[in-house]
């Protein structure tokens, strides 16, 4: 049975508490949230197999630290959507503000519009697929996981990146320190095609270029000083 | 400056330490990185003395009369504040900087004396969770190991903005300490010289922080006290902004504060010493009518009961210790002098926490060295330096130490 929460009537605290009261091994539950009106921290901290449909725009940190749940935002999302998510799926039908998917450890984040600056910053295993473009410093210090960009990227893409992978279809204004283009091998094509399919994004994997770490900054050495310039 | 050879004058500016450092830098081509806190002279609590009881102040009978030392931390918004039996907490020191055994020993000692210990820039280990009855979980810019399960397992949450040893700087963990376990917890390749982020990834400035704190509270159902840790650089403003951002507790770390690994130039030349920083923070809290409503924990060079008492008398609600706790576990003990000398140091001087070769088994990830520290004995050792502190505090005149005494 679907649970309906109207955030114009019910305080956010009640919604989040009701979501947290569902056990991790509970049967799948269905939630519809209306009138979010830019509220922050909507549906954060879920750890249950829930299907959550949010009708409208949300503020900061929607679906933060999500585990298991499938959360769909039928609108735009503010800063830090799905920050540090662990598993499950978060889908933004509109645009996402800065730091989308920041530090995410696992699962899949799909942004159907554009994402602003620092998309996928400090990524730790999450896969992010952006149908549009991303802003500057996306993939900054990204450690694990992947960032797929079907549009263009702003300045300093993948600055100080570790082992995360960036796939870009359009152009990057500039690559960040220690970020370089890498070969798009068969294994990457297979991985990317599967990811695009699970994100339900219609794009051809072979149209992308792959970027990653040159690994020049992994050890402190005076000879690396140029890489920061 | 006269040396053992009259007539030979050592330059005050270019003294032997300076000469050694210039020559080392010329050879190695990179700034010096080390552990410990600042080593140069800074104004400190030694520069203050207490006024004893006299005609107009009533003394308590030392060792006999009751003197409460407990303190409730974080009851501004949290439904489950911490209740500490002593106002001395263990500061956040990362698993990575410290061995798992050292973390466990700190947890055991803290639990035995009824106080809290804190995770660090590497996530929460099961050993420290199990050994600590009250564990504060740090939310750092790096977010290494950050996950909602550990957040819920924590007894309090500390959003770290900075450390006194390096306000504005992120952590460092050099390759020698990045073994498989530490690297896996941080989602990084083993063996790299790791630099933690210096800025939080998903908020900028105090207005954002207020929203971030709301999210952390929502995530944990408003149960846990929320601490904001600041490195002393603009403590008056930062304290006021932390109150505004919704902190239950402010942790203020002065310039003397210890570190696991930082550039020496950062340790010695950035920040405000603990004592003046504390004054500014208390002033900000008083102006906002928030003194003792939002608790203030101060750290950076706290070594003794006298330092604790002076910090409390100046308006702190509790203190936090790092270096002193490591020393109590055996760091810099004369027992290891020979081994320190083999490393080019000596007991009393050892600050190479970054190198991972600690003979005392504390700041290392080497299994053999780390196994030298028995977490049970180590825990006993450090708890005994804290346990008598109520007694020590009572031996100071009650009314000047704390109005509740
Ligand atoms: C070995 C070591 C590791 C540290 N790691 C962290 C850390 O991970 N996070 C943090 O906020 N502070 C860290 N600190 C700083 C302490 O939390 C604390 O602010 C400082 O040690 C207090 O000063 P004191 O050492 O003079 O007591 C570390 C300090 C040391 C000595």
Question: What is the fold's blueprint, element by element?
Answer:
The complex is a heterodimer of chains A (229) and B (405).
Chain A: E1 2-6, H1 12-20, E2 29-34, E3 50-55, E4 70-74, E5 89-92, E6 108-111, E7 124-130, E8 144-149, E9 165-168, E10 179-182, H2 186-198, E11 209-213, H3 225-228
Parallel strand pairs in A: 1-2, 2-3, 3-4, 4-5, 5-6, 6-7, 7-8, 8-9
Antiparallel strand pairs in A: 9-11, 10-11
Chain B: H1 16-28, E1 33-36, E2 71-73, E3 82-84, E4 88-90, H2 100-112, E5 117-118, H3 126-131, E6 135-139, H4 148-153, E7 156-160, E8 172-173, H5 180-186, E9 194-195, H6 205-219, E10 226-231, H7 235-244, E11 249-253, E12 259-263, H8 264-269, H9 274-287, E13 295-299, H10 305-313, E14 318-321, H11 323-329, H12 337-342, H13 367-370, H14 375-386, H15 389-395, H16 398-401
Parallel strand pairs in B: 4-14, 5-6, 6-7, 7-10, 10-11, 11-13, 13-14
Antiparallel strand pairs in B: 1-12, 2-3, 8-9
Any idea what the CATH architecture of chain A is? 3 Solenoid
Number of helices of chain B: 16
CATH topology of chain A: Pectate Lyase C-like
Helical content class of chain B = 25-40%
Give a quick precis of the structure:
Chain A has 229 residues and is of the alpha/beta class. Chain A has helices at 12-20, 186-198, 225-228; strands at residues 2-6, 29-34, 50-55, 70-74, 89-92, 108-111, 124-130, 144-149, 165-168, 179-182, 209-213. Chain A has one domain: Glutamate synthase, alpha subunit, C-terminal domain (Pectate Lyase C-like).
